[in-house]
Design brief:
This protein has 339 residues and is of the alpha/beta class. The chain contains 11 helices and 14 strands. A hairpin with a 2-residue loop joins strand 5 and strand 6. The longest helix has 15 residues. The structure holds S-adenosyl-L-homocysteine.
Length: 339
C-alpha cells in the first residue's frame, strides 16, 4: 500500500479535490503526520470519520525497521534501517553547536562508480521512494527523541540520479506545519549530473547545492569519477555558473584530499584557476580510508599547503573535520556492511 509520506501537498490536494474534501484539511493532515507523528489515521481527531476511512483504504502510515544503531566516540550515530523489501539503508546523525544534522541516503547502492568511495561498491538496486527518505528523519527523531534542524543529502546514492523523489522529499520536509526544516538548512550534494543542476536552478528552492569536484583536471577527474566522462569540467563549471547566476546562491565545492592524486600545490593552483570569479566555497575533506581501496589520506602537511594555497588565491575555503569515522559513518564509508 502507498505510504502517505510519498505525498506532497499538491498531491494530497489533488487527491482531496477528487473526493470532494475541503482542501484546508491538507494542512491538518501534514501537522498530524510530521508534527504530532501519529501512527494511525484514527488519531487524526479533527478529520471526519468518513475521510479517515478513505485515507485508510488508500494509504498507510509506515515506519522503517531499525536493525542496528552504532555510536561513535565523538557522539555521531549511525542507523541501519531495513526497508519493506528487506533492502538496507543507513543514516547518520551528527551533533554540532547549531543542533542536530542528519545525513540521509537516497538510493540502495549507487551507480556513479567514484573509485575512492565505499558507498558505490554496491551497484544501484533501486531508488528510494520519497517516503523512505523522509522516514529516515522521522525514525531518528523518534528513536533519539530530538528535533533535527539540518539535513545533508549526502548518504549512499546520487541524489540527482533519483531527482524527482529527492525534490519531493525536500519540499515535504520544508512544510511550515510539518518538519519545518528551512531550505537554508538543507544541502544536496551531487557528483555532477549536469542536466539536473540546470533543473534544480529553475526550482529556486533556496536549498544549498554542493558539488563533488575532487579535481580541476579532466583526465584525473575522469579517472576517479566516471561521471566526468559524460559531463566534463567545462560543462560542469558552466552549469555551476548558471546556477549561481540564476539563484544568487553560493555553491559549495567538495574536494577530497587524496594522497598523490589531487593534493599537490600545482593541483591547488589549477583549482584556483578553475574557480576564479565563481561564487563558491571550497570544503576540503580529509579522505577517509576505505579498507578495500588503495587510496590514502593526504598528509597533514599537504593538506595544510593545499589549504594555504587556496587561501592565498582568494578562495573561500575550509578544511572539514570528520565525524564518525570509527564506526564507518564518515563520508564515503557508508555501505551497509550488514546487508
Ligand atoms: N553522490 C553524491 C553524494 C554522496 S557522497 C556526491 O557524490 O556528491 C558525499 C561526499 O563524500 C562526496 O563529496 C563524496 O565524493 C565524498 N566521499 C566519498 N568517499 C569518501 C571518502 N572515502 N572520504 C571522504 N569523502 C568521501
Amino acid at each position: 500500500m502507498e505510504s502517505i509520506y510519498n505525498y506532497t501537498k499538491e498531491m494530497l490536494i489533488d487527491y482531496m479535490l477528487n473526493l470532494g474534501e475541503k482542501t484546508f484539511r491538507c494542512n491538518q493532515i501534514i501537522e498530524w503526520l510530521y508534527r504530532k507523528k501519529v501512527k494511525s489515521f484514527d488519531d487524526m481527531r479533527n478529520i471526519s470519520k468518513s475521510f479517515i476511512q478513505k485515507l485508510k483504504e488508500d494509504f498507510c502510515i509506515n515506519r522503517l525497521n531499525l536493525v542496528i544503531k552504532q555510536e561513535s566516540k565523538d557522539g555521531t550515530k549511525k542507523f541501519l534501517f531495513e526497508l519493506e523489501d528487506k533492502n538496507k539503508i543507513e543514516s547518520v546523525l551528527m551533533k554540532n553547536d547549531y543542533g542536530y544534522s542528519i545525513c540521509v541516503t537516497t538510493e540502495v547502492g549507487c551507480n556513479m562508480g567514484c573509485i575512492f568511495c565505499a558507498s558505490g561498491m554496491k551497484k544501484k538496486v533501486r531508488n528510494l521512494t520519497t517516503s523512505e527518505i523522509i522516514l529516515q528523519i522521522l525514525m531518528v527523531e523518534e528513536i533519539e527523541n530530538i528535533k533535527i534542524g539540518n539535513v545533508v543529502i549526502m548518504g549512499i546514492g546520487e541524489p540527482f540520479d533519483n531527482y524527482d523523489n529527492v525534490i519531493n522529499f525536500i519540499k515535504i520536509i520544508n512544510y511550515p506545519l510539518g518538519l519545518e526544516i528551512g531550505a537554508r538548512h538543507i544541502t544536496v550534494s551531487t557528483c555532477g549530473v549536469v542536466p539536473k543542476i540546470y533543473e534544480f536552478a529553475e526550482l529556486d528552492l533556496q536549498v544549498n547545492l554542493a558539488i563533488s569536484l575532487h579535481s580541476a583536471y579532466d583526465d584525473v577527474r575522469s579517472r576517479i569519477m566516471p561521471i566526468n566522462k559524460k559531463y566534463n569540467l567545462d560543462v560542469l563549471i558552466k552549469a555551476i555558473k548558471d546556477y549561481v547566476d540564476k539563484t544568487g546562491k553560493r555553491v559549495t565545492i567538495e574536494y577530497i584530499l587524496l594522497k598523490d592524486i589531487n593534493d599537490s600545490k600545482t593541483a591547488a593552483l589549477k583549482l584556483i584557476d578553475l574557480l576564479k570569479g565563481l561564487n563558491v566555497y571550497v570544503n576540503l575533506i580529509p579522505y577517509n580510508e576505505v579498507l578495500e581501496k588503495p587510496y590514502k589520506r593526504s598528509s597533514e602537511a599537504s593538506m595544510r599547503l593545499f589549504f594555504d594555497t587556496l587561501k592565498k588565491g582568494n578562495i573561500n575555503v575550509q578544511l572539514r573535520k570528520e565525524q564518525g569515522s570509527d564506526i564507518d559513518a564518515a563520508c564515503g564509508q557508508l555501505r551497509s556492511k550488514n546487508s
